[in-house]
Amino acid sequence: ERNNRQATPREYRKREIFRIKNELKQLELLIQHGWNDDKNKTRAQDWIQRWVRVANNKYMHSAGIAWGMKVLAKYAKVSMWHTKHARDVFAKEHIMHLLHEKIQHDELHGKLNQHTLSSIIHAMGSLRVHVSDESYNYFIQRFVHDTKHNHIVEIQSLSDLLWGIVHIPTIEKPKDIDWNELLYQGLTKGDKASPQNLTCILWSMAKLGIHPTSQNMTIWTELFLNHIDQAQPLHLAMTLWSMATLGKPPTESFLEVVKSEFIKKHAEMDTQNLTNIIWAYATWKIKPDRNLIDAWLLAFESQVSNATALHLTNSAWGLASLDINPGKSFWMLWFQQWTCLTEDLQLRQLEGRVTNISPHNVSMSLWSLAKLDIEPPASFVDLIPKLVHSTIQQYEAHHLATTLWACARTDLKDVVEFMYADWYPRFVQISHSCSTKHLANMIWALAKLEIRPDEAFLQTWYSAFRKHMHKRIFLLEKQTHGQEFTNSDLSLAMSNSIWAFAKFGTVPEESFLDEWFTLGEHLVAEWNPQMLSNTLWSLAKLRVFPHDEFLDAWMKSFDASLQSCSAQHIANVIWSYGMLGIIPQEGHLCKCLDQFVKQLSITAFDEVFGVIWALSKLKQVGNISIPASCIAPIVSTYFQQASYSSNQYEKTVKESLQILGVDVEMKGV
Fold first, then answer.
1. Which one-letter DSSP state was computed for residue 131?
2. Could you give the angle at which helices 133-150 and 179-189 cross, rounded to 10 degrees?
3. 402 with 434: CB under 8 angstroms?
4. Which whole number is the average pLDDT over 147-156?
5. Which of 82, 163, 197, 407 is deepest in the core (most CB within 10 A)?
6. Which residues, 6 or more positions from 363, have their beta carbon under 8 angstroms from its beta carbon?
7. Residues 6+ apart with CB under 8 A from 378
8. Alpha-carbon distance 319 to 279, whole Å?
9. Between the ranges 131-140, 259-268, 536-545, where is the mean pLDDT highest?
10. Which residues pair with 663 in a beta bridge?
11. Closest C-alpha to 637, from 617, 657, 621, 619
């Protein structure tokens, strides 16, 4: 103290700065010892208080505070307790106010730079500090101002800044900033490019929804390939994930280089990296070659015991989307890990801890199994009700629809019935948010599993589905003359829902059918052969005669798609004509029969019987004339079938043939 009083102001300042630097170095050394146990919490609190005292020193400038914040952020990563405690410092010690003062002071004296500002944002992101919009935008604008003033953007600084922006829990992300201009300057004029900061920049832009220009992507790709020998497994995975999220499919040459690096380093990858890679390929719809798949499977199977529910879900989704069935060993380990995670889930719930399994994990895992036609073992089937029960309150419409659809595809009727007490009340709660696709998938699943819903379910379903039909009909009334009205999701939903009612044997409410036919008249032109065939077959099963306007539009659409129809499609349509007594024009019927003969197989027993029976009904009802050339090949096929296989409908077929004028004994027309 005596020496300080005797020193000149300049000497005093030098000593203080030296002392501050020494203090910060000591603090960084202390943190390296870690604070992993409760005994060190007191030391950790002392450490923070010492840092706050140093930060408040009038000789401390913003760069020193930024450096100290980075150290604090490292310390906070030790545990959730430390993160919360460090975050509280910003609120209690008025660090943000102090930062404003220091930055304004340093800016006036030319000591402020983009590295300091990016370090501050990065540290606040690490600590998840809640920052006011005013402070937040102030720091960002100062960074942009510095880049314009110095005409250069440091790659590392831009990387730290974007990463921090992603992780700071603010309401709005910065606007009116030309990020592509900053990226271009950083890629072309900056230095110190490395796989780490290049990957971090692209990943952050993907998270923020900032799409790089094609020029920037080309430069970025070239820089990344130049440093790819230094890339860690994490960098490869993050790069592919970011490109897929941004909708930027890479070139074949880029993927080839990345594939080579992946095969070299696949053993070092964890399940997060591996999941991101297969997810990216699935998002691009690019099927990897066998060498990459084999390396991926080998690495994932060795690491699967560390996989989270999200890793299991996304890996299965990626494989299913690419139509890759990895084999028994993969699925055995995959199911085993799900069992471990479910046990952990139940333990966490008992202890009141946060669970790490979401409805997305449950529904998309089931979807993937259904997509690949994987029959789950009994041990996993037993887990499904537990998983759904544990997460049902977080279920949204798409989760519920996907879960029921997947259970139907894998014939898990008992599971759906057992879960009824969970999923039905949740459906009632969220029915208002269900789309037509969700509603159709749900009722289709119940029909597929032959689970007849009760009246309460149907009334809730009617209400939700009719809301969407009302909206579309309103739009129809408002549309201008000549404007086309299309909606593929609604078209499929209408077809699937009427099919489900036919499977239930339940005729929908009259008001529902009126709206269904009105809407179908305008949408039927876009329906594919499967939808057209299923729709008329369903109406026939329900004995519901379609409205005239709908039937005319349906026939025009069926004529237009006839060349794409299978024998089953045409057989179902002709059978429906006979069941409903619909008398088609002779030209239309002959076209259908000609196309049916072209697609006909000797093994199509049901199709041949259905067509012969329907034609006899049409002849009785409408006395139609069917040219012998149209029916002869069908009759000939029937006799060939009868010659080597008995038919349970033989008596009915003979009666139908007699009505059609066929000499059954002579086996000819």
1. -
2. 40
3. no
4. 82
5. 407
6. 398, 399, 400, 402, 403, 406
7. none
8. 8
9. 536-545
10. 668
11. 657
CB-based burial of residue 201 (10 Å sphere; 0-12 exposed, 13-18 middle, 19+ buried)?
Answer: buried
Amino acid at 296: W
Read off the tokens for 475: 């739009």
Which residues make Cβ contacts (< 8 Å) with residue 87, sequence separation at least 6? 76, 127, 128, 129
Q: Which two tokens stand for residue 443?
A: 């009722």
668 SS3 class: strand
Q: Centre a 10 Å sphere on the Cβ of residue 598 and count the other Cβ atoms it contains.
A: 12
Q: How far from chain centre, in Å, is Cα 256? A: 26
Q: Which of the two residues, 643 and 299, has the higher pLDDT score? A: 299
Classify residue 526 by its DSSP letter.
G
Q: Is 16 helix (H, G, I), strand (E, B) or coil?
A: helix
Gap between the Cα atoms of 613 and 654, Å rounded: 9
| Sequence-distant contacts of 297-303: CB under 8 A, at least 24 apart | 297/326, 297/327, 297/330, 298/266, 299/266, 299/267, 299/269, 299/274, 300/271, 300/274, 300/330, 301/329, 301/330, 301/333, 302/267, 303/269, 303/270, 303/271, 303/274
Per-residue model confidence as pLDDT tens digits over 570-605: 999 999 999 999 988 778 888 999 999 988 888 888
Nearest to 65 by CA among 32, 89, 29: 89
Contact assessment for residue 607 and residue 568, using Cβ atoms and an 8 Å cutoff: yes
Q: Which token pair is 424?
A: 């039905």
Residues 470-502: pLDDT tens digits?
Answer: 888 888 777 644 444 446 788 999 999 999 999
| Range scoring the smallest mean pLDDT among 27-36, 326-335, 399-408 | 27-36
When pLDDT is averaged across residues 317-329 and rounded to a whole number, the result is 95
* Neighbouring residues of 252: CB distance < 8 A, sequence distance ≥ 6: none
Q: What is the rounded CA–CA span in Å between residue 359 and residue 395?
A: 6
| pLDDT-based confidence at residue 141 (cuts at 50, 70, 90) | confident
Confidence of residue 117 (pLDDT cuts 50, 70, 90): confident
Query: What's the CA gap between 6 and 15, in Å, rounded?
Result: 13
Burial class, 587, CB count within 10 angstroms (exposed 0-12 / middle 13-18 / buried 19+): exposed
Structure tokens that stand for 99 in this block = 């930062």
- CB contact at 8 A, 365 and 318: no
Helix axes 378-391, 359-371, angle to 10 degrees: 150
Contacts of 224 (CB under 8 A, 6+ apart): 195, 198, 199, 231, 239
Residue 554, pLDDT above cutoff 90: yes
Count of H helices and E strands in the chain?
Answer: 34, 0
The structure tokens 């073992």 sit at 377
